[in-house]
Amino acid sequence: MAKIDARIPEGPVAQKWTNYKKNQKLVNPANKRKLDIIVVGTGLAGAAAAASFGEMGFNVKIFTIQDSPRRAHSIAAQGGINAAKNYPNDGDSVNRLFSDTVKGGDYRAREANVYRLAEVSTSIIDQCVAQGVPFAREYGGLLDNRSFGGAQVSRTFYARGQTGQQLLLGAYQALMRQVNLKTVKLYTRNELVDIVLVDGKARGIISRDLVTGETQRHFGHAVVMATGGYGNTFFLSTNAMGSNGSAAWQAYKKGAMFANPCFAQIHPTCIPVHGEFQSKLTLMSESLRNDGRIWVPAKKEDAEAIRAGKLKPTDIAEENRDYFLERRYPAFGNLVPRDVASRAAKERCDAGFGVGTTGLAVYLDFKESIERLGKDVIEARYGNLFQMYEKIVDDNPYDTPMMIYPAIHYTMGGVWVDYELQTTIPGLFCAGEANFSDHGANRLGASALMQGLADGYFVLPYTVQNYLADDIKTPRMTGDEKEFVETEKAVKDRFEKIRNVNGNRSVDSIHKELGLVMWDFVGMARNKEGLQQAIEKIRAIKKEFWSNVRIPGDKEGMNIELEKANRLADFIEIGELMAIDALNREESCGGHFREEFQTEDGEAMRQDDKFAYVSCWEYKGDGQEPELHKEELKFEDVKLIQRNYK
Amino acid sequence: MEKNINITLKVWRQKNAREKGRFETYQVKDVSTGSSFLEMMDILNEQLINEGNEPVAFDHDCREGICGMCSLYINGRPHGPDDGVTTCQLHMRKFKDGDTIWIEPWRSAGFPVIKDLIVDRTAFDKIIASGGYVSVNTGGVPDANAIPIPKPDADEAMDAASCIGCGACVAACKNGSAMLFVSAKVSQLALLPQGKVEAARRAKNMVAKMDELGFGNCTNTGACEVECPKGISVAHIARLNREFLKAKVQD
Ligand SMILES: Cc1cc2nc3c(=O)[nH]c(=O)nc-3n(C[C@H](O)[C@H](O)[C@H](O)COP(=O)(O)OP(=O)(O)OC[C@H]3O[C@@H](n4cnc5c(N)ncnc54)[C@H](O)[C@@H]3O)c2cc1C
Ligand code: SF4
Ligand code: FES
Fold first, then answer.
1. Annotated catalytic sites of A, by residue?
2. Would the CB atoms of B144 and A85 count as touching at under 8 Å?
3. pLDDT in tens, B138-149
4. Which chain B residues have a beta carbon less than 8 Å from that of A550?
5. What is the DSSP letter of A106?
6. Annotated Gene Ontology MF terms (chain B) (predicted)?
7. pTM of the model
8. Among A64, A100, A634, B66, which is 20 to 30 Å from A91 by CA?
9. Nearest-5° Cα angle at B46, B41 to B47
10. Domain with CATH 1.10.1060.10 in chain B
11. B214 CB near a chain A CB, below 8 Å?
12. Which fold has domain B4-115?
């Protein structure tokens, strides 16, 4: 089956987007009013897209599971957003952002998409400033920049430690303006539970009102999913509690391909796990690595004494500290990409040098920068993060180093999309973290916000319009067509089935079990045997779920356990596909580290001759092995080399 | 140092908006003081589910103090007995062994109860929709550095923009006024050249919407500022009033 066609426009990489726009089809204003677009998700990607569609004159319906669009998970992003503005005049350019991103992604991303991302990045900053986003500024009144992992230039714009919040509020306000103008209709606490196909095209969704428990049928000429990542497969992650992979998974089950599911990012700077009732992990922004130095004791006995509570980090003399990132990677030091930093921390802890009561932590120390810059400068830069840390851990990072450890943070994999961000289902588009498109095997810091807003403001408005231009004669459907009715019935049956299991275990207890299997076998370091075991274990968990989950409460009205159970059922299957994909990919690249494929000094080793492709998985039915399709990646503009941050 | 404590909870239970609510009493044992308050609620819920009962419904998402989704009126204070934090950032080390903790939803005419501890805060979205934005479309805007903005203005705008829309200010106010929330947005945008153009009109529309939705009047009690987890200052209310007066003069 020649199903995988990325439909990349002709021409040199720098011309492709211009060429695309030149040839793109338009819809005239009178026809726009007759066309309905469903947008699912109000994060950066969804809110930006819906606001833009509304401004263009389309009829938009937008859905979120939270009580307000302003609460999407994007709100939590701390550090910043990249853009190739080159305001500091330090040698940045679209081309450099492009090649940094391809390299940072360990050469597993599609060049054409990444180039477009870098190209539109500059417009994002203009747009946000025009909306009143209060980015950090210098005394001269111009915008301030900082640097982030994987880059040697300062191209990251930020709003204190709350960049995601400010960007999302900008997009949210633009969205609410359209709600006020009645071009957008907003559905809150309302969850996509299935996608409706008519003649092979996406024509709507079935949603579930989380307050009444009732299902609803919604028609759209096109459907855009911007539902975020599936990092919560691991139970513990830095994602918000409600983040889930269910919408993407329903798309997969309806025929959309799922790409590179095993590419999950582990973030090096999170607050370490403290107990079995821990519900989520808190990220300490990567921007801290600009001024914080990462170390563990150089002597094992010191590490042991610290774990036993007999020594404090401040007792360890300078010469007895091992600044292992600076030691191993002198060129990038503490600013190596996330995957490299995470693995280096794991390596030290596995070797017995870890700190904290569990030994699964390393220090992030600000002593030197406080001495160099003064406490007030550090406070201005990171005050809210330090406060957050102190509230959680009850330690003051101005006086004693923070403790950090890697945690699951972001999923590069996701629904496969072509250049237009269209899935293999015509009329179904996917944007933001939910798609797989721009970050390859590893995402650079501050690039997710960039991608979400690029997709929403500057890509989908063109590509969805191009698709709809052929659809102006398609009349609105009422939702009473048999495809809608049948899909709704299947959804209701599914929820009934979950409720009727009537077993003995809470949703969370099963989810935790899944999370442990994922972390142990499909986490930071993977190997063949472990992955095979993981697949068996996950299948057993699936069985346990469907025979032993317990959902108290009623069918009608709000039932949070039922919502969670429905999402967990999908997480289990996503976990299985992640393991299958990780097993297939016999190489180490980016966030995917196969122990069998490493250099002598423990660096990741790609197998470009065999794996320079996107794995695209096709659903073949419940309990059936999925089928692998390959999108071969061609590198015409960035040279394929082993990443080197030394 | 962390230790384990036993506590008694008095939790507001209410099946839905129509039915009457009541307090239920629960015991939770061996809670680590290193746990967050919501992790303690998770433990309670796990206990309830294992007994075959319905867990307590409460709103939460980010669990790190930024989304504004969590709420809870704990021992008579919105977001509980710690300063400058949201409920999800509250830790059990603030409580002692043997404590009784009262947990209620936000209580305000503007925020009807949906279930147990969950309230409907869509009124805040309606207020933003009435004017809490700069009226620009996507594309065709000037370069981001075209208009320099004095750093103090940008910083003050950022202070105001830190509002997370949680509603604690309304819950804390005896009049159920949403003035602190409204003023934070009006002030942020009025401080920036991009938002200044519409400042007066914005203030007028947002205040009108707030009144229409049943929020009370501001009588300057200052209770909102005390309970705001993000330290939003009542000085923003003064700026809102100035913009509001300008709008009246223009009318
Ligand atoms: C703690 C943290 C810090 C981060 N910091 C940075 C940073 O500094 N820079 C950076 O670039 N990136 C950062 N990231 C990553 C970045 O925040 C996310 O990747 C990005 O915001 C995702 O945006 P999104 O629009 O794709 O999805 P989200 O913001 O996750 O939004 C998903 C939306 O979909 C809705 N939804 C989900 N499922 C359904 C359904 N079935 N039905 C209806 N609606 C649904 C949700 O309600 C929500 O509105 C950070 C991430 C975390 C966790
Ligand atoms: S002003 Fe403060 S209390 Fe009120 S909604 Fe905003 S953050 Fe919450
Ligand atoms: S859960 Fe997000 S602020 Fe508390």
1. 338
2. yes
3. 999 999 999 999
4. 49, 52
5. T
6. 2 iron, 2 sulfur cluster binding; electron transfer activity
7. 0.97
8. A634
9. 95
10. 122-250
11. no
12. Ubiquitin-like (UB roll) (3.10.20)
